[in-house]
Amino acid sequence: MDIRRVDVGGRGLVALKSIRKGEKLLFVPPSLVITADTEWTNTEAGHVMRKNSVPDWPLLATFLISEASLGDSSKWSIYISALPRQPYSLLYWTRAELDMYLVASHIRVRAIERVSDVTGVYNDLRARIFSKHPTVFPEELFNLETFKWSFGILFSRLVRLSAMDGKVSLVPWADMLNHSSEVETFLDYDKSSRGIVFSTDRAYQSGEQVFISYGKKSNGELLLSYGFVPKEGTNPNDSVELSLSLKKNDKCYNEKIDVFRKHDLSMPQQFPLQITGWSLEMMAYAYLVVCPSDMRHRFDEMAACAAGKIKSRNGINYPELEEQALQFILDCCESSISKYSKFLEGGSPLDPITTNIQEANRRLLLKQLAVALCTSERRILFRAQYILRRRLRDIRSGELRALTLYNGFRKLFK
Q: What is the mean pLDDT of residues 348-372?
């Protein structure tokens, strides 16, 4: 394989010759894999970090900054020079950009939390370690911006190698492989050859881009960590978070809140909605929301199922509540659709005017990514809306037929 410019992913690894299905590719020896045990070029910095028992993720983030600051004198200079300077994962979007472009998507909340987490980790390291060793960790090198860069690299490239005791690792060269939802092969340590390899699950012709799987992730998760959105309809693992919430005027509001807390459920609660439908947990949560006071003895069972603690294949079922529960989910679904439509159909705030061409191009790219994500998420919501409306129509037409038959029998016996 060779690294080249490609249509999917910007750059990637391309087959130089025909590759068979099941062929092992890409041997990378453990000595060229970056883990928490890797020796630092700046040995003093590495010693201070390990002395303070810094966990793997912040340790590796600091390692990348340290090695990048050394330029050609670092053993890893060629690898680090090939890393992107500012990837487009959501970690690099400003709060204003997140609020403007992802106003409808729950990935916005995840992105804000991630930025907050990275900021918190940096502030902790600065207070505990960097401020006490300013010559080893000067602020002009070890600051929040460089930590956003290093954590962005980790979020988009770190892999967990199960055959190496689950170590989180950066694997140079291998991390140039792009993701495809159509493949299921992934990187791991091969004990027989003693290197990091992956086995292809399909054949490739010369000139074709070779792919691996980054995992079964939704389009939102791929944008969050990797900065791209697959083409609409190509990701079988795509999903959208649907928010369900209990109304405060519910007669059993306090009782239901208590069982939510007992089973570690939040209010509102988000559930993944896929093109194929929704989970048993979401249906159980909906049952609990619409459940009347005379069924309060069922509250605990419903909450346990919503929390995934009831493992029955069919979950729980309350035919007398099904219509109300489905209508509740439909209402939540249509409320979410309206938010997406407002953004996609031009109801979002206007982009700030700028004369900086580079900044204008960047915003254009971010907006294109946001439109692609919101289009794919709204597509799932539209599908759920269609299914819910059909099921409700069938339930109601069945009730109507039953009532017609009942009235017919009454007239007959009169």
A: 79
**Of the ranges 25-34, 165-174, 224-233, 324-333, which is most confident?**
324-333
Which residues have CB under 8 Å from 161's CB, separation 6+?
A: 33, 167, 168, 169, 187, 188, 189, 196
Helices 56-69/107-128 angle, 10° precision: 70
Instruction: Indicate the Cα dihedral angle 312, 314, 318, 323, nearest 10°.
Output: 150
Residue 110 CA to its chain's centroid (Å):
8
Kindly report whether the global pTM for this prediction surpasses the value 0.85.
yes
Tens of pLDDT, residue by residue over 80-124, are 998 988 766 888 899 999 999 999 999 999 999 999 999 999 999
Alpha helices in 263-356 (DSSP H): 280-290, 299-306, 319-342
- CA geometry: angle 397, 398, 401, nearest 5 deg: 85
CB-count burial class (<10 Å; 0-12, 13-18, 19+) for 267: middle
The phi, psi pair for 5, rounded to 5°, reads: -70, 135
Amino acid of residue 174: A
The DSSP annotation for 32-99 comes to GSB-TTSPPSSHHHHHHHHHTT--HHHHHHHHHHHHHHTGGGSTTHHHHHHS-SS--SGGGS-HHHHH
Q: Residue 225: what residue type?
A: S
Cα(41)–Cα(71) distance, integer angstroms: 11
Tell me the C-alpha distance between 387 and 382, whole Å. Answer: 9
Give residue for tokens 């809140």: 257
293, HSE (Cβ side, Cα atoms, 13 Å)? 6
* Residue from 286, 283, 276 nearest 379 by CA: 276
Stretch among 252-256, 314-318, 403-407 having the lowest mean pLDDT: 403-407
